[in-house]
Amino acid sequence: MNRSPRAQKWYDWSLRHTILIPIILFIIAVIFKTFDVFVFRIDELLGEIIISKSLGFLLIVAYLWFVGKSVTAIGLHGKFVAKSLIIGSTGIILILLFSYGLQFGVLAGAGKEPSLVFTAIDPTAGVTGGVAFAMFLLVGNFVNSFMEEGLFRGVMLRHFRVSLSFWRANFLQAAFFGIWHLNWPIKQFLTGQLDVGGLASQSLIILIATGIVGFAMGYLYLKTGNLWGPWIMHTINNSVQNMVHIQTIDGLDSDMMVFQIALTFSLVAIMLFFRALTKRFQMPEVKPWGQETS
Question: Rounded to the nearest 5 degrees, what angle is found at the Cα of 43, between the Cα atoms of 250 and 46?
């Protein structure tokens, strides 16, 4: 590939600093998110931190431009797109059906009279709305999935793979993905919704739950050789949880523990499903940064 001297210089630098670069990009993205959530409080106004999500994806695109690459380098290319979309969407739909079904059954067995409710809610911000808000959430989920999958799987995982085994690289990016979501319990603590004990417990739960999500997404990225599978999986998961809720005599979404546990452990099991289908479809595994995926 022909690059300008400037791009070649930065690309060579990226090959020498495959741990440092993703961490720098992560810190910049965290700064964007911090301003969005804690300074401008866009989540309270709009229900979506759309500004930091958009800036985060532009940050990834800018980095790729500096090193003479396009978004195809992080897995947004045309190879095996249909198969990747099928695997990712089928996997998350099975997980959600199981998780909602188990939660509904447990609540019904406990005599809490569960029923499905379809309405647009952003649970992290506690904002609700009608059709327009639902469309806004969907757009936000599209952008968010591009940004988070692009950074944590597309950039981090490929870069970490240069000096780490896949499992170590996947664990590391999943850990950063968990840390990425700690702004929400921190905000609840600062606004008085959580005490120190609540902050610690909520942070630990988020680190484990989102870490497992990130690990499963990373595994799907590895096995499909592109980012479309994790992207559709991420988008469907967030969108369904925004729109589909279970109401009981205790209120809306008041008994989420069963759902979250089922979702988390299903993500571990679904990796066997990913492995079987990608092997059947003969899909290439994603390569470390600097090596082209065939």
Answer: 95
